[in-house]
Structures are given as C-alpha cells and as structure tokens.
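Example with several molecule types.
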Amino acid sequence: MSTGIRKPARKIDLRRYPGFVHLAVFCMIILYAPLLIVAVYSFNASTSITLWGGFSLQWYEEVFFGLESAKFKDAAWNSFTIAISAAVVSTCFATSAALGMLRAGEFRGRPVSFALINLPLMVPEIVTAVATLIFFNWINFERGIGTILVAHIVFCIPFAYLPIAARLEGISGIYEQAALDLYATRWEAFRLVLLPLMAPGVLSGFLLAFIISLDDFIITNFVKGAGVETLPTAIFGAVKQGIKPNIMAISTLLLVLSFIFVTLSWLIGRMGTDSGRAAD
Amino acid sequence: MKNLMMAIAALLAFAVSPAQAAGKLSIYHWFEYIPQELLDKFSREFDVEVTMDTYDSNESLLAALKAGALGDYDVAVPGDYMVKILNQEGMLDTIGQNELSNRGNILPQWVDVDFDPGRKHSIPYQWGSTGFSVNRNIYQGDINTTAMIFDPPAELKGKINVLDTSGETLTLASIHLGIPQCTQDRDQLKKLDALVQGAKQHWASFNSDGAKDVLVSGDAAVGMIWNGFGAKAREEGAPIEYAFPKEGYIVWMDNVVLLKDAPNRANAIKFMDFLLRPENAAAVTNYARYTAGVKGVEAHLDPALAKSPEQNPPAGQKGFFVEACDAETQPLYDRIWTRLKQ
Amino acid sequence: MAGGVSSSGGHSVSSAYAAVRNWLLAPSWITIAIFMLGPVLLMAVYSFLTKEFRGGVLWEFSLASYDQFFFDRGLFGDEPPKLHWTYLAIYLRSFIQASVATLLCLAIGFPTAYFIATRPASTRMVWLFLITIPYWVNLLIRTVSMKFLIRDTGPINEWLISFGLLEAPIKMVNTDFAVQLGLFYSYLPFMVLPIYAAVERYDFALSEAAADLYADRWTTLWLVLLPAVRPGIIAGCILVFVPSLGAFLAPDLLGGAKNFMIGSLIEEQFKGAAGNWPFGAACAMVLLTMVLVAVFLYARQQAANARGGG
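Resulting structure tokens for the full complex:
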C-alpha cells in the first residue's frame, strides 16, 4: 500500500464513494444468481432443466461413474492443461511485449505494433476460427491439442496484454532509475523493482487469458482434431438435446473447485502477510 | 528468452497428439443421437478405440469437411440430401459389393434411394419427420395444418419457435403454399418470401438446439421439431401433441457414409456392419425415438414406441424429402432467408 | 524524445529496454504474424475470390461479395442496384447492442473495480477471484441459466408476482434487453480487471491534494481519478466492445435469434446453408476495417497525448 503521506484523519474518507459498494454487491448478485440456479438444479431428480422433480444426487453419480464420465474427465483435463499453458505462455509474451511497447521509448513502428498485438481482438471469433483452420491445413499442421494450444495462445495475447500495459503505463520510470543509480543491474532493476510493481497487472492478464481459454468454444471447435474434446466442446455436444442436470453437476463441481482454489490462495496470502508482519 | 522458447517447444511437443494408430475408429456424428452403450459395445467386441465428434446441422458437417476435416474421420451421418451433396463433392468412398456381410438387412425400400442409388456409399441409419408440436393446454383446435406456423390462430401468436435452418423452415413454408422446392418461378418465390416475412411477426424465436427445451419450459406453445425430439419433449412432461399437417410434412433419413481418405477404413466397415445388426439399429431407435431402416428390429424395440404418436403418422398424409437445390436456385433461397433474418 | 524518462548516460531505463526492444516484442509479433495475420490475410484474399457452390472458393478474382454487401439488386438480383440496407442494418444493430453492453459494463464494472482496488491487500485477491469464478462455468451454461432466471415463468417474474408487485410477467426473454444483459454478463470481467489494475496503481495523494483544494469527492472523481485511470477504462471498453460485436451466443439464446447479428451472419456463410465463403470473408473484412480504423485513431490519439504530456 503506497498511499503516500499519512495525514490527520479527515471527516470524510476520500476513498469511499457512496453507492459504489451497493453497485459492487449488485454486480455480485447478477454474477451469482444464475450460478445459484445451476447449483440448485444439479440436485434435480428430473431430467429437465425447467421442472423440479425432487432432490437427488444421481447426476453427481453419473458425472463420476456414468457412461460419459471418461469423456468429461478427458475433456476437463484437456481444458485445464490448455488453459494453463496458453495463459502462462501468452502472459509471458504479453509482459515482454508491454515492456517493449511502453518502456523502450518512442519508436516509429509503435502504432503498427499496437495494432498487430491487438489484432486477435479485432477479428470476430468465427472468422478467426475458419481462417485458422484453413491456414493450419495449408501449412499441414496436424490438428490436435497442439493446434488448439497455438490458437489459444494467439488470441490470449491481447487479453493478457491490455491489463498489463494499462498497469505499466501508470508506473513511472523513476523507481527503476533509482535502482539503476544504486548500481542494480538492469535485470535486478526489472526483477526486484518493476516486476513486483507490475504484478497486479500481470495477474489480471493471466486470469483473463485463463478464463478466455477455458471458455472458448468456437475457435476450439474448428481447430481441434478428431476426437479431441475440451470442456466447452464436450458440454456443447451434450447440451444440444437440452441441458441435463449432469452438465449442471459438472458446472457446480467446477464452481466448488474454484472456491477451494480461492480459499487456499487467500489463506496462503494471509500466511504470507502474517509472517511478513512478524518479520518487521 | 531462450529458456522461454525451449519451454514453449517442450509444451508443443507434449501437446501434439499422436498419429492415428490401428485399432481406432473416428466418427463424425450428430449431437447426442447414438447411445454411449452402443459405442462401448462396439469398442469391446472389436477391440477398437472409438472417438466421436459431433455437429449440429448437415451444413456444418459439409462446412467442416470442406475446410479440411476430410481425412480425420472414418464415418459420418449425413441426412438424405447431404449424402447426395457429399457424393457430388467427391467426399465419399465406395463400399465394395461384398464388404458388408449384413447388407441384406437393409429394408428393401431403403436400398435403392435416389440420394444414393444402389447404396454405394452409405447405409441407412434412422429416419423420421420434421413437423411441429403444439401445446394442448393453450390451443385445443385442429392442429394438423401448417397454418399453425405460418398463419397461426390468435392464441398462438408470438409463441412460436421455428428451426434455425433455412432448409427445413423454408421447405415447410413451401409445403404450406403447395409450391415445389427449389423452384425458379418468380411468382412462387415472391409468395414464399411474402409468407415468411409476414409470419415472422408471430414467431418468438429461431432455435434448433433448444427446440425441445422451449416446448418443455413453456417458452413456446408451438415449436417446429423432429419427431423423436418431440417424443422426448412429451415424455418430459410437456403437454404437447405432434402434428402431421394435411398439407404434408418433411421426411428425412440419416445415413452412415464411408468418408474418403478414412484413416481406419477397415474399422469403419466393421462399424457399418455392426449398425446393420437389428439389435444395434434398435438400440439407436430406442434411444433417439426415430425409426430404423433395418429388417428385424421389431423384437428389440421398446414397446412404448409402437404406440408413440410421433412414430406413427396417420395414413394418407404426405411426406416430402428436402431437395438439394442447384447452384442457380440455392442463392435465391439464401436471399429469402437473409431477408427474413435481417 | 528518444530518452524517455531520464538520460543519465548508459544507465537510462528506456535505453536499457530500447536495446532489447525487438527481442521483447518478437515473441508476440512472430506468433501473431504467423498465426493471426497469416490467416487474416488469407481471409482478405478470399473476400475477392469467386464463391464455389456449397462452400469453398474458386481462385478467380471477383468483387461479387462486396457488391452483395453494399448494393441491393432485389430478390432475383436483376433490379438496378441501390444502397443495400440489409447488411448495414445488421452492422448498425450489432454496434448499438455492443455499445449499450459496454456502457452497462462500465457503469457497473467501474464502481466494482474501484471498490475492489480500495479493499485491504489481503481481501483484494478474494474479490478478484469472486469476479472471475463465474467464468469457470461455461458461457453456454451461464447464458442458459440467465435465460431460466428471466423467462416469463422464471423466478424473477414469479417472485414479483407473488409479492403483488406485478400482475402479469414482464416479457424479458427474446428482447433486446435480454441480449444486452447476456452480453453484459458474458464480458463483465473484461471491464473490471483492467480498471482494477489501473485504480490499484492510482496514488490517492492526488485525491487528497484535490480535497485540499476544496474539490468535493465527485469533482475529484471526474477531474482527477478518471483521467488518471483512463488507460484502464479504455482497455476495458475495447475488451468488452469488440467481442460483443461478434458475439452470437447471447443474441441467439436470449434474443431468440430472430435477427442476424454480425457474428451469426458470418457464421451462416461458413456453417449454414448459404455456404458463401467469399461473402463471409467480405463481411468480416468490413467489420475488421471499421474496428481497425477506430483502434488506429485511438493509438494516434494516445501517441499525441504522450507527446503532449511529455
């Protein structure tokens, strides 16, 4: 927290805007209300999404032991592998590109470079999908998980780039300059000074890239090879005859999994700050 | 940077999928239309690893094959007119005269079909009809007319769902008008254009994937639907009745075709032979609620199907196959569809 | 201006990065040039080719696709050409939908991002994750659940009726409102995350200074905070607006697919019965040109700002 100089307490807290907290809560309600529906209906004994037929755990049983369980497990594994790989690679590329764009002074090709980096955002997904497929065919890139990964890395780059660049634009060069003046190497100045300052932007970029990749259907559906499924394509295949509660069960499991993930990272974060305070 | 590049190279190497080995079968199929049990049974019996991808319309099957998926899959399941198109496009392989030992099981009326005379490239899979179901709680009158969709009674206005495919929706409209499909007659086409333009104000949505859900949930009181899908909607509790309009309805047949450049051709033949066994064809019928094109399935069918109204059209009603228009005519229909959805 | 921040000899920050600039940019450049620019150029070429019946192209030059886009020659294609509103109207509608969705996301996303960024560091992460968690659930599922919630017989209408606030259900499904709600729901985190990153970086000493100069908090918000976090806001708007333009899941499911959006129009050319690849490519090129021009103007303005601001 670099709030700057502490002043005597004011009567009003300048950081608080009345109504903002309500909007944030409202936002959360909109985000979570449909998911609550998903969670509730995953315990539905009826096969229909719209009619309540009593409480049942049968759909969870089906997810783990049913005929299609192997398919969904493979799909989930593929999805997470691809999303993590694509998010890591694209975040590295995007961080590096943001430094080149914003830290290396003016250069002539900047607008072109900006347009190039953001190009994947400007092209409608369906076009990217068809164009990429034709292109992969043209260069004889055999379709499979490899083609999905490459396509995902490409369209994740701008999603990672924009938050990282937005963050970097707000960081003055004086911190690194100070480090350099104190005889830090360039690498040390970057790693120990700039990178920690950039971290929230990098994290936002990573998260965006991760969910974009995890959620992508159209492009994946076009560039995936025969028999390779990700969660979205498997779910799309399954929901065509109406969304059955086993899909809702999978979604609820994903939700629970992500909640566990969040709780863990929060606990780890708290441990970190506690030990940091102890060291003071 | 070097480390980064090496990491990416390692990732890619890890991710590239292995080439197709022997003992595999790659199916390109309609969504959720074959029971997983049947694929598992085939897999066990022949020791073949089965993978299946799905598509949601005949046109997207064609689009995917055109864009280079040919050579990835062994078999696909196109509808009647699409078999003809795929064959014209040179995307089908020929099945040898003696390759299928169960060829004799094909029902006689499905052997010499005009979309694949002599069944050189395909075997029958399932057939059914495309019509519409009406919510009987909302409308009690006579439903056996295409006017339900194109000139609906007041109770049903604004509560109609039509399929989001030009082929089926415009064909049903042609049936309503009593004009031929793929016509080049200007007055007939103008009438067709005016009919759908005028009817659109009464329609709530265009939806194919959710055709069943909109009826079960009550979002729509009339919904164009395939007969088996309609049966499933009724079994899920929708108070609906499937109509067999007096003007006629659409009939279709899906067929298993042997694709050109199939990576596992031998297994594809085994699979087709497998599907021609009555008990296996019946398993698909029991699951999807359509009708098999194979002899001797009766003994294996779910008894409820025999009485299912969706499977048993009244005698004397006419069914029409969707026709594949030629290169001069198709753009006219495309234009009508685009004008409808603009 | 080559020096940037400082120019104390070889120890300058920007000269350090400038030396390796091409290396920093190369991974993104190369990846996108090969796997994005390549395919897009291929599409551009396709838009000038002759359509092959039922999908695919013939390698013969043709302007037919652009002619079809801009000129109406009647149902049978033989009337004298006049400006074609069919497709332009589809584009206009998509632009309006996307704009409304972007404004909605901004109106709710900005306060949310601000709220999160001003939480203590330890809980900030939790809030961020809370925003992204819904996106672990597939978009189709989320959209369908949203539809369930707002349908005539859905929970919202039933509650409102049971509390006596309504007599008849509000018609929400298959309306423009539903589409905008769907787009808003699809892309909200794309607005929140970049704004969060910018606000988190904001130095509140600036607000204090403004307060010392007797600015009230809304004046401070408008004149100090918003300009300071502008890059984050613009990034968020781009991230929401552009995907919204090409989206077709929310429009189809929630809007009833009665009218084409840009995304579904193009999809129809490649996956539907139309099978007109060059025309689909031309539609994409028109959209691409519009968006690229907008982004180019933005980039030029940014560059001008940077020069102006030193």
